[in-house]
Design goal:
By secondary structure, the chain is an alpha/beta fold. The chain has 15 helices and twelve strands. It has three domains: 134 residues, Rossmann fold (3-Layer(aba) Sandwich), CATH 3.40.50.720; 143 residues, no CATH class; 81 residues, Rna Polymerase Sigma Factor, Chain: A (Orthogonal Bundle). Strand 5, helix 4 and strand 6 form a beta-alpha-beta unit.
Length: 384
């Protein structure tokens, strides 16, 4: 029985994690639920799963029969919790992740910012206190699964990418992409921010940084391959040139389930792939000229320190401006590049320096968005 605290229970990964918990029955017990502002859904989840603890940004509106309100850190440190599934968005997941790792617990990590921004601090806490990080994202879960039973060196990690909805678009066409088009991901069903990040390929860039921290592989040994069928979720190449890949239907409940049951494998509610249908698997390189966010994320990751935090803050602000219709789709990369160029790295990367870098990049983008985007548009017109 895995006693699970689910942080971010009302979000996309959170609700799918509860589907997995229903499916797994006695193998999983939900001992704490944390949601943000969707108090109606959180109350319904509490009524169904009877957790002992809950957290909400609007606790007065939660009808938590028998459950006690607690902070995220209290939940993550609670004695009755074996696994903390961190599915919150943004940086709210950082402190609870550290609290759980410092108590030697397992953190099933679905949140990207935690590792992207504070990878060094998180990995160090896990080593020092014997906590365990288990990835939930499909790519990292795939690599995690490929590495089971392998103790030797890794030659390369090959992260697969669907390419997103605009992979065939020209640079020109990308400038006129609408919010509705960008929110319609061809394969995965996810929250709004990550769907836009998938369309710009920023999401893949953040995954490169996460993979670096999770598996201790240098940036120049992590490659991204476009694989539109989304059946291979990532691959690992070993020094002898042999490659292991993990395949399954593109359904988030599968990596969530593995994170909760590993090393055990138990039947899933999703039907396995059919191998009697004929199908092709294709692979192609990423065009970083049309999708500069991937290049920017790699650069920020390799620069290290507070650069990845500046990347996250700038992207958060830029995506929010795009969703409000204030900047074009291609403006996202332009704003992120501007914020990275303007960023001055702090000495050392303390949690405080990381949060400051994120906040500063976020305000910079929000304050200067129009002029930067206009300037960029004028430059591209001049080039044509
Ligand atoms: Mg992913």
């Amino acid at each position: 029985m895995n006693r699970v605290a689910l942080l971010g229970s009302t979000g996309s990964v959170g609700t799918q994690a509860l589907d997995v918990a229903r499916h797994l029955g006695d193998r999983v017990r939900i001992v704490a639920l944390a949601g943000g502002r969707n108090t109606g859904l959180l109350s319904a989840q509490i009524a169904e799963f009877h957790p002992r603890l809950y957290h909400s940004l609007l606790p007065d509106r939660v009808t938590g029969l028998g459950a006690r309100a607690a902070t995220l850190e209290e939940i993550a440190s609670d004695e009755d919790v074996d696994t903390v599934l961190v599915a919150t968005s943004g940086t709210a997941g950082l402190e609870p992740t550290l609290a759980a790792l410092r108590r030697g617990k397992t953190v099933a990590l679905a949140n990207k910012e935690v590792l992207v921004m504070a990878g060094g601090i998180v990995v160090e806490a896990a080593h020092r206190f014997g906590g365990r990080l288990v990835p939930v994202d499909s790519e990292h879960s795939a690599i995690f699964q490929c590495l089971r039973g392998e103790d030797g060196p890794i030659a390369r990690l090959l992260l697969t990418a669907s390419g997103g909805p605009f992979y065939r678009y020209t640079s020109e066409r990308l400038t006129s992409v609408s919010v509705a088009e960008a929110l319609a991901h061809p394969v995965w069903s996810m929250g709004q921010k990550i769907t836009i990040d998938s369309a710009t390929l920023m999401n893949k860039g953040l995954e490169v940084i996460e993979a670096h921290w999770l598996f201790g592989v240098p940036f120049d040994c992590i490659e991204v391959v476009v694989h539109p069928q989304c059946l291979i979720h990532s691959m690992v190449e070993f020094p002898d040139g042999s490659v292991k890949a993990q395949m399954s239907p593109p359904d988030m409940t599968l990596p969530i389930q593995y994170a909760l049951t590993c090393p055990d494998r138990v039947p899933a509610r999703t039907a396995p792939l059919s191998w009697t249908d004929s199908r092709s698997l294709t692979f192609e390189p990423v065009d970083v000229t049309r999708f500069p966010c991937l290049r920017l994320a790699r650069q920020a990751g390799a620069a290290g320190g507070t650069y990845p935090a500046a990347l996250c803050g700038a992207d958060e602000a830029a995506v929010s401006l795009f969703l409000k219709g204030r900047i074009p789709f291609t403006g996202i990369a332009r704003l992120v590049e501007y914020a990275l160029n303007a960023h001055r790295a702090a000495d050392g990367a303390s949690l405080e320096a990381i949060r400051n870098a994120e906040r500063q990049a976020c305000s910079l983008v929000t304050a200067h968005s129009e002029e930067i985007v206009m300037e960029g548009a004028a430059q591209s017109r001049a080039r044509l």
